[in-house]
Amino acid sequence: MLSRSAEGLYWMGRYFERTGHLCRLLRWQVESLVDRPIREIHFGWYRIYGSLGRPIPGADAELVGGDDDFMLVDSFALADDLTFERSNVDSVWSGFTLGRENARQMRHYLSAEVWTNLNQAYLKFRDLRIEDIWKTAPESFYEALGYDIDALAGAADTTMYHDDAWRFMRIGCFIERAQLTISLILAHVAATRRTGESLNDDWSSLLRVCQALDVYRRRYGVTIRPDRVLDLLVTDERLPRSLTRGMDAVAEELATIKAGPGPAAEALRLARSLAETIRGDWPVRPDLDLRERVLDELRQACRKLHRLIVAAYVDYPVKDRPSN
């Protein structure tokens, strides 16, 4: 496979995973505008922007508080920034259109079903503005787009040939998922400190965004404990969005793909090491500060893994390129 093809498919997987993740965050956030207290709405915006590593636009100080009308105006502007703002590289619009552009360039690797599903979703989305979705129930828009992205992933799994093209898409998806999960948890902890209190509803919403609330309730019951939430999201290898599951999937795909001329072996070792580190070294004590430090180390390691994969399969020196 050409390096530019591997790169396009890898980033296609990353962009669509990023878009689906942000749709889930925004769906729960705009739903909270209906009947949740101001403090909870503020918490949600702090968590979203914190997970993206972006400042809240137009405000160095606190978000407006104490007046529901002002809060709704703020939320309208923030939702627009995170959904349709072209200059925001982290917006839903940017992630979806960049993912589709990578897919367009890699069209010859995709099945007809994947390409059809993608274009149908794009045609519904491309001409919308925040005013269009805000008139009725904006959460329905985010829910529908999230389902479209899930359908796209399902079509890829069930209709694409499971060769290296499919595997590079999966690697991009799982690395992005791991980084997003870590960033979201760290932003959640930071927002908890900022508001000065840790509420069950906040932790429940984190589980909802990670599609893990039902699993948590089956395992632990209705009582929400932060340490158990983190244990589930980090260590449960059967949970699709857990860190352990993500690293296992990346290691599995890297082991199957033919090694590139760059540091492919080092990337595979690191992916395996990350999964084993999570299993073996995750703190047993419910110490939030300690777990936060471990998660920050894991985030740095995931970034290194991304750099190694790019160096192994995309940006390796010309002298190392295999001859025809």
Could you characterize the architecture of this molecule?
- This protein is mainly α and 324 residues long.
- The chain has one domain.
- The protein has 14 helices and no strands.
- α8 packs antiparallel against α14 and α12 packs antiparallel against α13.
- It is globular and about 60 Å long.
- The termini are close together.
- The model has no long low-confidence stretch (mean pLDDT 89).
Globally, the shape reads globular
Q: Describe the main β-sheet briefly.
A: none
Spans where pLDDT lies below 50 across 5 or more residues: none
Query: Rg to the nearest angstrom?
Result: 20 Å
Could you give the distance between the termini?
Answer: 12 Å
What are the secondary-structure elements, in order, as H or E? HHHHHHHHHHHHHH
Mean pLDDT: 89
Structural class: mainly alpha
How would you summarize the topology of this molecule?
Blueprint: H1 3-35, H2 38-52, H3 68-83, H4 92-105, H5 112-125, H6 130-134, H7 138-159, H8 164-195, H9 200-209, H10 213-220, H11 226-235, H12 243-256, H13 264-281, H14 288-313
Brief summary of the model shown:
With 324 residues, the chain is mainly alpha-helical.
Which properties best describe this structure?
14 helices, 324 residues, mainly alpha, globular
